[in-house]
Amino acid sequence: MASAHGHEPWLADLCAGWRRRQDWVLQQQIACARIAAPTGNEGTRAAHVQQALAMLAGLSVSRDRSGNVCAVVTPTSRPSSVDDAAPIVCLAHLDTVYVSDDAVEVVRDGSRVCCPGIGDNGRGLAALLVLADTLHAPETRARLRRPVHLVATVGEEGEGNLLGARTWFDDAAVRGLRPSAAIAIDGPGDESIVHHAIGSLRLRITMRGSGGHPWVHAGAPNPIHALGAFIGIADRLGDGTRRQRTVTITRMHGGDSLTGIPQQAWVDLDARSPSAAGLARLRQELEHAAYAVARDATCHDPSRPLTVEVAVLGSRPAGALESESPLVQAAVRATQTVGRKPRSASASTDANVPLARGIPAIAIGAGGIGGGAHTRDEWYDDAHGSAGIERVLHLVLGLALALADVRPRATR
Ligand SMILES: [Zn+2]
Fold first, then answer.
1. How confident is the prediction for the chain on average, in pLDDT?
2. Among 170, 213, 275, 403, which one is least packed by beta carbons within 10 Å?
3. What residue numbers bound the domain in which 229 lies?
4. Last residue of a domain, which of 294, 316, 338?
5. With contact defined as beta carbons under 8 Å apart, do 376 and 111 qualify?
6. How many angstroms does the Cα of residue 196 sit away from the middle of ligand 1?
7. Residues 189 and 227 in one domain
8. According to the model, what pLDDT value does residue 84 have?
9. How far is the CA of 349 from the centre of ligand 1 (A)?
10. pLDDT at position 3, please?
11. Beta strand residue intervals within 98-237, DSSP E
12. How far apart (Å, rounded) are the C-alpha atoms in residues 287 and 312?
């Protein structure tokens, strides 16, 4: 029977226990962040998390074909119906945008810790360990109604293109496993609830021409000049702070020598939109602009045409869950239960993958405050870090123990 789980006495005791272990949680977070895990090279950190999960909770932990660390906690009693058996999946990404493979230098001053990846996603990984420890405890496991999958994912950042989350949900579908809810635990914070998954597209636009001498071949179509015109148009295709569509040129390269008309140049761009249709339209406009500037440049000397190549470097599907959906509402209640103010947010996270497949999914932080994410100066402050951990526990236990119902209304 559903009840106000915020007032379940054993859950209150459990949270009090984690408040006392706040520093232990921070130590787990630091231990994870200390191991370099750039996207595509998460193996060492994955091995650490695998070992920690196995040691903490006595779980059998495996690695899937993409390198994800996967564990599952199953109910001790058999579910009373198929519906009850639909699992919950909690994901925390292993990788960081920080590119060095060297050990990461961690500076701690009281509750404040500085190092790349300490919050994003050292905090999420620490929360995953807390969940493992909690769920496997006999008093929790006896109450479990649904299996809970704990997954430390690879390839969430940048060029990883959500590889780990895609692989997990692909393999789950093959096994006939359809989670009733997915929760990405990502970074610090204890108020925001990400239920709009921003879709994104990373393109490389390459232009090639015949090149030549700046004087002898003056007027030959120049890929850098053409890409310059393209950048001007691309910039205007975004809508700035309205954020219904953004376009960012992220990298550029071109030219071969100081005194030659270049034969080739490219730009990388990142385009985003909260709607799948909006993103598709934006892609069309960007490609149209690239071909248009190349055509214009070629007009000056049709014997030496500029060619355009558009390569997709990555794409993340968009998706959204309504504020009224049971999962968002469960997250709202969990946030209020720990005395915080729920806030709706949009972002691009592992939750994009299940959302795009129609599985209710959100992303939430795991407590504390932080800044400088995706820089070498990232910092995290654990002064009030426990509230976020408690929020995660209230949410996940609420769902897994069927204290709150998360099934989408339409399917009941
Ligand atoms: Zn993250």
1. 91
2. 213
3. 199-316
4. 316
5. no
6. 15
7. no
8. 57
9. 7
10. 42
11. 107-109, 112-114, 148-153, 181-185, 192-197, 199-208
12. 11
